[in-house]
């Protein structure tokens, strides 16, 4: 089973993990460039992940139910709300994701700061909580 590390360890990961455990986070988003850098194929529906917290402990198992590569400009309010982080709408979601994907953490990992326009592809992933651990 693959391991899912949301964001970087710390408050952002902890908030995401808490939202998964509470059942309010049922979606997450990635950049194709991150998968390319890892040498990994894009995720697919049916894959299961062990979600780890900031301490590296497995806390849940999730299963992807839908995966799509789509333009960032096509993400709608319903998807933004499914991210479980309290986004008001798709514009709020987009702003937060562009900020994260341009962060020092991501830029250092990728070796560049990504540019964004309405057509920039993102990997949208819907999932369901299978089991909580510990």
TrEMBL record:
Q: What domain of life does the native source organism fall in?
A: Bacteria
- An example of a Pfam family matching this protein is ASCH
Q: What SUPFAM superfamilies does its record include?
A: PUA domain-like
Residue ranges of every copy of the ASCH domain listed in the record: 4-131
Annotated Gene3D superfamilies: Sulfate adenylyltransferase (3.10.400.10)
InterPro entries per the record?
ASCH_domain (IPR007374), DUF984 (IPR009326), PUA-like_sf (IPR015947)
Record PANTHER family: CYTOPLASMIC PROTEIN, CYTOPLASMIC PROTEIN-RELATED
Name of this protein: ASCH domain-containing protein
């Amino acid at each position: 089973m693959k391991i899912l590390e949301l964001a970087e360890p710390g408050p952002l990961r902890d908030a995401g993990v808490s939202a998964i455990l509470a059942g309010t986070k049922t979606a997450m988003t990635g950049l194709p460039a991150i998968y390319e850098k890892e040498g990994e194929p894009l995720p697919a529906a049916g894959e299961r992940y062990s979600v780890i917290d900031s301490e590296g402990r497995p806390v849940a198992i999730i299963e992807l139910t839908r995966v799509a590569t789509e333009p960032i400009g096509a993400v709608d309010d319903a998807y933004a709300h499914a991210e479980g982080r309290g986004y008001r709408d798709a514009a709020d979601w987009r702003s937060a994701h562009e900020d994260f994907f341009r962060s020092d953490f991501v830029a250092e990992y990728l070796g560049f700061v990504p540019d964004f326009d309405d057509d920039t592809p993102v990997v949208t992933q819907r999932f369901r909580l299978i089991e909580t651990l510990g």
